Amino acid sequence: MPARSLLKLEEMYTFLGALPSNLVAEILDGERVDSPRPGMVQTLVASVLLGSLVEPFMRRKGGPGGWLLLGGPELHLDGEVLVPDLAGWRRERLPELPDVSVMTLAPDWVCEVLSQETLALDRGGKMLAYARAGVRHVWLVDPDLRTLEVYRFEDEAWSLLGVHEGARTVRAEPFEALALELSALWAR
After folding, report:
1. The dihedral formed by the CA atoms of 55, 138, 46 and 79, expressed in degrees to the nearest 10
2. Which residues contact 186 (CB under 8 A, 6 or more apart)?
3. CATH number of residue 177's parent domain
């Protein structure tokens, strides 16, 4: 990357901290993108989903274990700054959480909880950025449509593995060991 681009990115990183608290700033493809913080519905959906995954995949109580899961981490990946709603790393790649304020190791899985304000960004620029960074799985959860879309990155493209809706119980990659009850995500 030319020195001029590096200087521009350094300036953007410095500016990220100067935003009002009701905005989330990200850097995608060299451009700063400001989005509203998640609404209460999106926050609840992300919290319930994280809670469903923590016991079997992080704490290993009767489940397969093997994951480190975080809510809303700031990721610095190849000059881009991303803030997914949820992210997960396989323990073989990240055996212990480092004591840092941002993660520079790409997660194995991210989840974006969609809203009208972030829909285009989450489906567009962020999916491309996750692919560039080497993220293998993306879930898009839409509380309005009550859907879970499951994607895997393979052969240089995102493959849609399934769209699950309503109150179904599903097994979705990379957490297919869990029978996830979607109805729990939609309860307010």
Report:
1. 110
2. 45, 143, 146, 167
3. 3.90.1570.10
- On whether the pTM is more than 0.70, the answer is yes
Q: Is residue 44 a part of any domain in this protein?
A: yes
152 forms beta bridges with 137, 159
What pLDDT digit, counting tens, does each position of 103-125 carry?
A: 999 999 999 999 999 999 999 99
How many domains does the chain fold into?
A: 1
Range of the domain at 164: 38-186
Torsion angle in degrees (nearest 10) through CA of 103, 106, 110, 115: 70
Distance CA 153, CA 55 (A): 26
Cα–Cα distance list, 53 to 47, 60, 166 (Å): 10, 10, 19
* Within a domain: 156: yes
pLDDT in tens, 151-174: 999 999 999 999 999 999 999 999
Neighbouring C-beta atoms of residue 88, cutoff 10 Å: 27
